[in-house]
Amino acid sequence: MTEKDYLRKPVRKMVLIGESNAFGMCATDPRNEWAQTVANLLRDFQDESLLFLNNAIPANVISPKSPGYKCLPDYALPTAIERYKKDIIDHNPDMTIIAYGLNDSRCGNPVDSFMEDLETIVMDVKKNTKSFIVLASPYWNTQYNKKLWNNLKAKPEWVNGRYKVFAKAGRSLVWSYVTEIEKLALKYDCLFVDLFTPTENCIWLLNNDHDHFNDVGQKTIGQIVFNKIACSCSFIGKKSKRIEIEGNFDITNTGGTGAQSKSIRGFLER
Fold first, then answer.
1. Which superfamily, per CATH, for 13-232?
2. Residue 67 contacts residue 165 (beta carbons within 8 Å)
3. Is the pLDDT of residue 270 over 80?
4. Fewest beta carbons less than 10 Å away: which of 72, 156, 196, 270?
5. Against a cut of 0.85, is the pTM above it?
6. How far is 38 from 236, CA to CA, in rounded Å?
7. pLDDT at residue number 259
């Protein structure tokens, strides 16, 4: 249940940092990328234009302290702690989405270490901008369910390659990330979005690499993030309320599956 209205002004500039799922990998249609889904829904339901900067980097981790850091190629760097000033603060956004924890939990980064770096980023963004911060939890992946992971007929290729350090299985570490990120959001007056619980064990939302989300998975994640924003920030309802009043819309001239009333068509064609 939403206990407060987090944001009343429209979002004109939004920045996101995260890893490959936030980057949009394995979405065959860019419109289905979860980050673009959030941005496009914001554009649909607010009058003001929105500039969206997706600064996610595939295979990215929170900091060089992460156990997976040493195996990362150059394209996966710099880490979040090394780049957030350039990729968030320098843009001075109205809204910032931070989506980390998947890769760090998969390579065994202790929760205290991960949260220390995440808190540093949140504190500094709060100190140096007026940005509203959305903290997204890690998503679910197959390896978080040991039974599903061990019963796979064939493990994805990355398990035996340079990324094998990210193949740690089990739910306990990633769940500690989810609960601690929620506490951090409460501490710093950020909006927390749980992406783990709604996607848990939904293996059909994943690509065959059991790491990235497919089109429907990406779209679903984007809708979850948008829904949490919409249910927590009143700015998103202003356009709909304006149209309702200006068009004098009510139960007598709206609705009807597969049809659009003359009053609605007339209003939209003005």
1. SGNH hydrolase (3.40.50.1110)
2. yes
3. no
4. 270
5. yes
6. 12
7. 56
SS3 22: helix
Using left for φ > 0, alpha for ψ between -120 and 50, and beta otherwise, residue 39 falls in alpha
pLDDT above 60 (res 1): no
β-strand partners of 133:
96
- The whole-number pLDDT of residue 2 equals 55
Closest by Cα among 18, 206, 8, 177 to 96 = 18
Distance CA 254, CA 234 (A): 23
Cβ contacts of residue 258 below 8 Å, gap of 6+? none
Mind listing the pLDDT tens digit for each residue in 77-87? 999 999 999 99
Residue located via tokens 């009510």: 250
- In the block, tokens 């220390």 appear at 116
Is the pLDDT at 161 greater than 90? The verdict is no
Of 133, 144, 227, 234, the closest CA to residue 184 belongs to 133
Three-class DSSP category at 6: coil
| Listed residue (135, 105, 137) closest to 123, CA to CA | 135
> Per-domain residue ranges for the chain?
13-232, 238-270
pLDDT at 260: 64
Matching residue, tokens 């040991």: 146
Query: Average pLDDT of 175-186?
Result: 98
Q: From CA 219, how far away is CA 91, in angstroms rounded?
A: 26
Please state, in angstroms and rounded to a whole number, the distance separating the CA atoms of residues 212 and 235.
32
